[in-house]
Amino acid sequence: MANKETVKEEENTITIDGNELKESELTDQQKYLTSQCRDLLNKKSRIEFELDQVQASLNVFQKALVDSTKEVAKEILTEEGEE
């Protein structure tokens, strides 16, 4: 006797206050709100990712500015010492 394999697709669910709800049991409005929440969570993740990049770049530019002011200060002190 041949083994039959069955493919079982699991339905999407959401959890609200510890209660798991099947997407098929949601109203159209609840499905829409769920979709909005998912999209906003994805956007939040992308923005946090981009913010990490911006913060790293800002740190590099701030360090370069501080280093350049230290270098200019050294040059001025050196010139004053030569006079």
What is the compact description of this entry?
The model has no long low-confidence stretch (mean pLDDT 89).
How is this structure best described in words?
With about 80 residues, the protein is mainly α. It has a domain at about 25-80. The chain is about 65% helix and about 10% strand. It contains one helix and two strands, in the order ββα. It has one helix spanning about 30-80; strands at about 15, 20. The chain has a two-stranded antiparallel ribbon with strand order 1-2. The longest helix is centred in the middle third of the chain and has 55 residues, at about 30-80. It is elongated and about 95 Å long.
Features:
83 residues; mainly alpha; two-stranded antiparallel ribbon; 1 helix
Q: How would a textbook summarize the main sheet?
A: 2 strands, antiparallel
Q: What proportion strand?
A: 5-15%
Number of strands: 2
* Low-pLDDT ranges: none
CA-CA gap between termini: 103 Å
Estimate percent helicity.
Answer: 55-70%
Q: Count the helices. How many?
A: 1
- Name the structural class: mainly alpha
Strand order of the largest sheet: 1-2
Principal-axes geometry comes out as elongated
Mean pLDDT: 89
- Using only C-alpha atoms, the radius of gyration works out to 29 Å
Helices and strands, in order, run as EEH
Please give the structural blueprint.
Blueprint: E1 13-16, E2 19-22, H1 28-82
Antiparallel strand pairs: 1-2
